[in-house]
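Appendix B. Raw example, untouched.
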Amino acid sequence: MNKRVLRQIGLALALLFGLSAGADAADKIKTVASFSILGDMVRQVGGDRVEVVTLVGADGDAHVFSPTPADAKTMAGAQVFFVNGLGFEGWMVRLEKSSGFKGKTVVASKGVKPLTLSEEEGHHHGEEAKVDNGQEEHTTGEGHDDEAEDVIDPHAWQDLANSKLYVANIRDGLIAADPDGRAVYEANAAKYLDEIAKEEIAVKQALTTLPEQRRKIITSHDAFGYFGAAYGLEIIAPEGVSTESEASAQDVAKIIRQIKKEKIPAVFLENVTDHRLLDQIARETGAKIGGTLYSDALSESDGPAPTYIDMFRHNIATLTAALSS
């Protein structure tokens, strides 16, 4: 076989595989996820059958996100829109309406027992909030009620037990949109749930080593309420559950007094918030900056928290390193 024939065969094969790859891409289920943590979960469950576009990307703040015309265009072509719910995406309903989205909205947190935060007292409550989470996209998509004494904490993914509900809701949403992919989605979800269960054991084991008196920390905004409730840490934050709110001088002064009185060992920065307030608190109290925690967004792919599981591993390593001594 001469070189000319071999070259022609090679070109034919390249064309064939190119067309096959294009067809596969065209056949993928088009999904949109509201923020990076949820986008990663959808990728883990959807695998190669799903195309995922994330609206609020790495290190992005979904609380202050403002959709663009390009986002609306992306939404218009999507078959499934995955959202956290619990009031996290205050811009969600407006985007759905302006884009003409005709697909299915899946609320990933459906079934979660929400925590509420008393804004005046600044601490979490475990009682169930009055939210119909299954219909969330129509009832609470515009965000929190600023007049209410208690607000719903939307950061449910910070408890790995809740993420199991997220995975189940994502799996079921994908099966509804793509019944032919049921076996793939069920297998991917089962594998992912096993990884989450192993990480949950590792988290609990790591945190049990911390001395009781060092289980109090300061973070920028109140994104770790579920984490604290699940794993036995007291989390104090100058801001509320949304980064849109600003801490008052009175709130900051109260926290500074509390740090000094209770000898709280460390304050932790967040990847989605301004560091200046915590820098000030650290300077005035002598508490050390314990590092950066990932709360509402993942890192870039070359960062320390490119996936949901990696985020937990990074956060636990950062916390234990700062609090163990």
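End of appendix B.
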